[in-house]
Amino acid sequence: MPARSEPYNAPAIVTFGSEQTAWRDAAGLTKRQLAEELGFDESYVGQIENFKNLPSEPYADALDTFFKTNGVFGRLRKRILDTRHTSILPPGFVEYLEHEARATSFKNFSPILANGVLQHEDYARAILSTYYPPDVLDQRVADRMKRKETLERTQAYFTMDESVLHRMVGNEQIMRRQLEFLLELSEQPNVSIDIIPQSVGYYPGIGGEFYALGFDDGSSIAYTESSGEGLLIQDPARVARHVLRYDSLRGHALPVDQSRELIRRVIERLEA
């Protein structure tokens, strides 16, 4: 598996790499020496210890055999596999989901894809299948569908760039279902979906997706994501800036009724 530029923060991956470092140090070996003993590249050994790559089964077996651990590294690798559905999530997103589950207000800007809370199952599956192997895909899709419970208790505002409507995900049938699903959700009294048309051109804030959540106690958080990197924001001043950013972006959007009409026109083109 290719190494990542940024380290994984999943506990199982960090534990594996940390244990390797501890065993190697106890044996008085450098990374190069350990690599030679195991028959693997020194770069791979370093990637494991820096949490930037995942251990293969032969690699874990080689560590257990060399250090005579009675299967420690094999068990740690199994733990990585058991929890791998969270290992590729952006940093901060798992914690964000805990906040999302208790939010009472929800604001989201999406410049590229329909937000996960708004995704039809087929659309979500087409996206997630590019990240997850078949043996965990069904669970990941189910997890994403469960996020729709957010819409049952929140006043939710979604603003998206028109390009979201045109970006082909899966095939035309999947896209048509997704757009029809957006129309269906937009009819709910607590859900607002508006579109920033392409005619607006460039506008400040178009860079990445972000959320602003509010809670019963008056507190709020923000979460922003771009290029696979996520950041959970809890400082009130910084959260306030994201709320202001959302309100500013929404000022470029079509009114809700006109946004619905734009979605209908895109559906009609798919059916033509």
TrEMBL record:
Q: Which Gene3D superfamilies does the record match to this protein?
A: lambda repressor-like DNA-binding domains (1.10.260.40)
Q: What are the residue boundaries of the HTH cro/C1-type domain, all occurrences included?
A: 22-50
Q: Which superkingdom? A: Bacteria
Which source organism does the UniProt entry give?
Actinomadura soli
Q: What is this protein called?
A: Helix-turn-helix transcriptional regulator
Pfam families per record:
DUF5753, HTH_31
The beginning of the lineage is:
Bacteria, Bacillati, Actinomycetota, Actinomycetes, Streptosporangiales
CDD domains hit by this protein: HTH_XRE
Q: What's one GO MF term for it?
A: DNA binding
